[in-house]
Amino acid sequence: MGYRIGVDIGGTFTDFCVFDEEAQRLETLKVLSRPDAPGEEVLQGLAEIERRFGIPPTAVTYFTHGSTVGVNAIIQKRGARLCLLVTEGFRDVLELARLKIPDPYDLFSRRPEPIVPRDRVLEVRERMNPDGSTDTAPERESVLEALARAEALGAEAVVIGFLHSYANPAHERDVAAMIRAARPDLPVFCSAEVWPIVREYERSITACIHGSVQPRVAHYITRLEAALAARGVPVAPMITKSNGGVMTAAAGKARSIEMLLSGTAAGAIGAGFVARQAGFPRVMSLDIGGTSADVALLRDGMPDFRAGELVGEYPIYLPTVSVSSIGAGGGSIAVVDALGVLRVGPDSAGSVPGPACYGRGGEAATITDAFAVKGVLGAGELGYGAVRIDKAAAERALGAVGERLGRDAAAAAEAVVALAVANMYREVSRLFSQVGEEPSGYALLAFGGAGPMLGCLLAEEMGMDAVIVPRTPGVLAALGGLLADLRSDFVRVVFLDVAPEAMPELQAAFAALTAEARGWLRDSQGHAGEGRLGVSAEMRYRGQSYEIEVPLEPAWIADPAPERIAGAFHARHAEIYGHADEKAAVHLVALRVVIAGITPKPEFPAGTVVESRPAPEGQVPVAHRGGMVQAALFRRAALPPGAAFAGPAVVVQDDTTGWVPPGFGGHVDAFGNLILRRS
Amino acid sequence: MTTQLDPVTLQILKSHFEAAAESMAYTLLRTAHSAFVKETEDFTSGLTTPCGQTFASPKDLGATWFIGLDYAGAINALEDYRPGDICITNDPYSGYVCTHAPDMHLWMPIFHGERLMCFAVGHIHNTDMGGAVPASLSRALTEVHQEGIRIPPTKLVEGGVMDEKLLKVMLRNVRMPEQNWGDLKAQIASLKTAERKIHEAIARFGADTVAAGMYGVLDLAERQARRMFAGIPDGDYAFSDYIDEDSPGGVPCRLKLTIRIRGEEAEFDFSGSDPQLQSALNMPTGGLPRHILPLVGYNYVVYSLDPTVALNCGLARPVRCILPEGSVVNPLHPAATGMRSLTCVRIQGIIIGAFSRALPDRLPAGPAGGGGILNVRTTDPRTGRMAMASINPITGGGGGAADGDGLDGSNSFLKNTPVEITEAEVPIRVLRYGLEPDSGGAGLHRGGLGTRMTFRLHSPNSVVTARNRDRVRFSSWGLQGGLPGATCDFTRNPGTPGAQDLGNTDVVHCAPGDVLSISSSGAGGWGDPYARPLEAVLRDVAEGKVSEAGARAYGVVVEAGRLDEAATVALREGRRPLPLPITFDPRRLDFETVWSEAAWDRLAELLFALPVEWRFFMKHQVFAQMAQDAQAAADPVAAVERGFAAAAARHPQVGTLAGRKAA
């Protein structure tokens, strides 16, 4: 018996979850992140855990870790200096991207600078045909010329992205071999090895992002491993992934691209766990931090997956847990423009200087300040005592906004909150119409530092009846990491018509993918079990230019049943788009396999539910809808399973403050989740 | 009837309205069938007041041209709206809501009890509406009747009952009825989404507040626009530009605009623009003073100056357009309108140009364009089947501006098709697709580059179409000393003895092995190119965006990759023409030695005095006459008068008709 630790490094705070296997208890902790010295906060947290909970590093049996070191390298443009080798004639694959400008109404709108500038994109004489046959083999002279140029340009790594390499990676591999032979010290990445999808821009940008972050991430993980070992942690860290899984540290060093968006992904995994635990089949998770609010839709605790998520300004096309940013965070700034129009965001006070009420030099009025003025914040401590609320500063900030609106600070605070909620309403409405669902069938799971403050208000606006606040809303991503399985995705582009004569090729692709997946789990991850295999295909009607992912049964491939594969596609198409054309030819563009190796999970025993109506610790006056209400003040730790109360109420805990407006009532379930319902 | 709302409630309602419009758009995008909707996003959705003023539209989704489209003409064509009605029209000449036949517009009244609250509206571009050519669009068409079946404003659904007969007639007349029907269903679903969202808002805020909010957001946009005009010096700001050809192989078409800013209001006078054309480039506006087609560029300008403006009908309230009857910007039935998009794009440019005369430091130089949208029809040797595909839009960059270089390669919402997808689906081999070096106008801030695509066809009887080709002859303009961008070209088998210049040709029949190379023009530069920092010029040379020869336009001498400092200093400090506020390309200036502004103005005067059916004919007669007039450059106005007189003498009936008023 020992302790499992999950760590998630965020922009402001680094979150820790410590699960005591024997006592089946969860402890949590937050320390300030150290973007200046990544990894230091992990060690600081370990020391703090030993000091606070008496848990020595030597007792750790499992350690998962999510880091922003890769994302930061992209955002701060501190990735490796890359050269990109492309097929002759296609030097502008990154410059042109998919053409569309970010804001078509704006005459000044520009796409982000290409991650590899044009002088470092070098053409190589070679050409592959779309069917994977060679038109022109890579010309050695042309490769060596490109390498010489790359060296002269000071390349720290080389990415190779040739046309049609998804169909046959031989040219990329041959050129990589030529370069490695000449320069064994120069890292080389082949686009078809990073993620072999069709569409040259999407594959190339993904490979470039990988090439850009890999050296730095590998270095970071190596250092972290050493530091943990030096502290006596007896296990190697597992690295959380954007697909909601984990991988070994060794895999993290080689497949750095897979960890870039792991923070939001782990948050969704943690949210999914809580949704299942609390017994809500359809949940919208709402994670509001200082600078952003992230939303994921969870069905039976499972998030959606999507490709094309942004890392900084650049998209990557690996399957990623689908989490949408809906703008505002607690630090979003309220301003009144020259025509007297109030706006909240998009500018944010972030963590530095932060909201005015944090007393760290911020003066602008933020959403957090508005809650301080309302009276919701300030009754307890925030961020494990790291922050104290300066209500006077918040009132000064909101007073300035109110002056422009002709209202007092309290009325201005209410306006800011109402507008912030209306903005979220718009973003969330869009999300639901994208998937064609109604919000009223969903419960809202609020977490992050500011989620429980805004959760009920947004639920009310969306017509959602229930709000779930997990027991540890501030550290759900760290918890998600602890709960994640070993998980990896594999893809083969096949370009087949779904017809009997194409089945042998599909079978071959399936066999190859399965072998690769099993090999990964067994050899790379050292996992003893079989693993759970998921199969899906990216399919479309002939002539459509986009694919949808269709889950398949392995049996339909093993014992070829093209009509069932096509049928599954028609059904999925109808489900997503509301219609299907059973007579049209169906095209299978790519086959995908995902393998999951189940990791040991913390078990959270259900507590004994004893119905109670605990007396509030006090009364807090809160400005609400133009008047003052007396809200009951509860300390979360003092609310055992079965405890119930009615709004208005303020619930304080270490990592967040919850606002339960009038009209909502709450109770604590067997697992300590706070369930708030509209009465 | 309208309650005055406080600004905060108004902002909250604005979010709710936008949520409704965006939910409509996502519903349409998700459930539509055709590529035009799903990939090109050529559709709109929105909400209008009971009298047709659009007060909410999705910002990130759909066509960007129709923000603030006024539905009054369509709404007023019918009466007695009841719950469960859904109305349609695609007739460019009934109410001037629809602007070419492929665009099917729908509107549906939303009621709260007995009270008509608003209309949910929207359109999609149907891939085909029947008519003379597949896809219903061709520059060569001359009458709207050739451009497909037209439905005048009609209730498709009345009180919840579908007019099956109308549907049957419509679907019988189009080439891909399943697709049109599928898209129509998606449009109806989108309208119903709006109805749900508005009912939610009414339940939450009350009908009076919601109604007040609709007018409130329109008023807000109006105040924002008025504030912008107040910040611009009063004055007349004129700008003109050309479409290379007014019809296949034709002569240039001039588009002219004078913006007269007075206080918080402005007049946009399009007088002097060409008479309506015997081609499909006409823009049907009905002469409505706030029609959206001539104001698309205005919306872009207002938004670019202040991205916080509310994008709705209210922005246009301080503006009044003068759109002469029987002109290219206000054609009379039955002029064809299918390709009005080319004209509309050029007018967007002249609006930016006219505003930049007032605010040269706050707007970019002329945008690139003219590449066209490439499609191919060929036989797939692997299957023997006919393969049709959209290859790519050939796009160009944005103009240089005070804040930096123009974006290279594109300036719109159009997306490209990956080369890997094109090659996997159609038997063509792409040889090159990328930026066109030296195509961006030189400037302190360089204009965005154009693009070029070169490809080989493999099968006989292949047909390549390049819709909206232009800018082969005249290019974009530079601003504040910046130089114009390069023109573009279209060549068959370049670099071979049989090379053929295809110019603005938009339909090309190809033999197996033919190579086509097509480019877009570049955008204009901003600011004095000689003031561009050396590092920026050298960086462009290193990146291959500017050649060593091209660097000379910046007064920079680079040879064999090395900067010649002495020669650069000599060049930069040497004598040269003074930088101009606006610089047009040399071929335009050369053309204007004969076809001067005064000559065009005189021609317009003479032509607009004629009945509408004579104008285009006589314009071409005068052009032919001018081409033979060796003295034309000496006094272009006199030459125009001579030419007109000579043509009129050949057609004496013109004289007797000259006084007849058009239509």
**How would you state the average pLDDT of chain B, rounded?**
94
Question: What is the tally of beta strands of chain B?
Answer: 24
Shape field of chain A: globular
Helix and strand content put the structural class of chain A at alpha+beta
- For this entry, what is the oligomeric state of its chains? heterodimer
Total number of beta strands of chain A = 35
Q: Which CATH class of the domain at 75-216 in chain A?
A: Alpha Beta
Distinct helical segment count of chain A? 17
How far from one another are the termini of chain B? 40 Å
Query: What is the CATH T-level topology of the domain at 75-216 in chain A?
Result: Rossmann fold
Helix content of chain A: 25-40%
Name the largest protein-protein interface in this structure.
A-B, 65 and 85 residues
Tell me the radius of gyration of chain A: 26 Å
Given as residue ranges, the uncertain stretches of chain B (5+ residues, pLDDT < 50) are: none
Account of the 3D structure:
The complex is a heterodimer of chains A (679) and B (663). Chain A is α+β, with helices and mostly antiparallel strands. Among the domains of chain A are: 115 residues, 2-Layer Sandwich (Nucleotidyltransferase, domain 5), CATH 3.30.420; 142 residues, Rossmann fold (3-Layer(aba) Sandwich), CATH 3.40.50; 112 residues, 2-Layer Sandwich (Dna Ligase, domain 1), CATH 3.30.1490; 61 residues, no CATH class. Helices cover 33% and strands 27% of the residues of chain A. In chain A, a hairpin with a 6-residue loop joins strand 26 and strand 27. The longest helix of chain A is centred in the first third of the chain and has 31 residues. In chain A, 55% of the residues are buried. With 663 residues, chain B is an alpha+beta fold. Chain B has three domains: 218 residues, no CATH class; 219 residues, no CATH class; 71 residues. Chain B contains 16 helices and 24 strands. A seven-stranded antiparallel beta sheet of chain B has the order 2-1-5-4-3-6-7. The longest helix of chain B is centred in the first third of the chain and has 29 residues. The two termini of chain B are 40 Å apart.
